[in-house]
Design a protein that fits this description.
Helix content is 24%, strand content 28%. The protein contains 3 helices and 7 strands. It has helices at residues 19-23, 72-78, 120-142, and strands at residues 10-15, 32-42, 48-56, 67-69, 86-88, 93-96, 114-117. The radius of gyration is 15 Å and the shape is globular.
Length: 143
């Protein structure tokens, strides 16, 4: 099966590199996980640059507003497990498509690299939170 076209809202199987892993000197993530494409653009060389947000089972810290929970029906649609999961909006990876960190999805789908799309309304919530967090970070940096 060919690779999918990276589009906002597409959920990929990707080896996500968390910031704490990068700070520890790692150049690859510790595990493959579902990630949501939040942006796909062409760079000046004509290559597609893709930005992804990770999906995790780790519940955000109390009072944190950096993640959005995935509704159970969406998890079922994507054929993910039934445990609670969140899309983390303040940890993003960017790579040139297709990149070497893409992997086939697990569970009997060896030639498929995506789980499908999250609903547009959920994608908009993710996008808006990323923009909000980015704007807040820029305000803090500017002080």
């Amino acid at each position: 099966m060919p690779l999918p076209t990276p589009e906002p809202g597409l959920v990929l199987s990707y080896e996500f590199l968390w910031s704490h892993e990068a700070e520890a000197g790692h150049d690859q993530g510790e595990k493959k996980r579902p990630t949501v494409v939040v942006l796909a653009t062409k760079n000046d060389k004509g290559q597609t640059t893709v930005t992804v947000a990770p999906i995790t089972h780790s519940e955000p810290e109390t009072g944190s507003s950096n993640a959005i929970e995935i509704p159970p029906k969406v998890k079922e649609h994507l054929r993910l497990d039934s445990k609670r999961s969140w899309i983390v909006c303040d940890e993003l990876n960017e790579f040139i498509w297709p990149g070497y960190d893409l992997y086939p999805v697990p569970k009997g789908r060896p030639d498929q690299f995506d789980y499908g799309f999250i609903p547009p309304a959920l994608y908009e919530k993710v996008r808006n939170l990323i923009l909000e967090l980015d704007a807040s970070a820029k305000k803090v940096t500017a002080r």
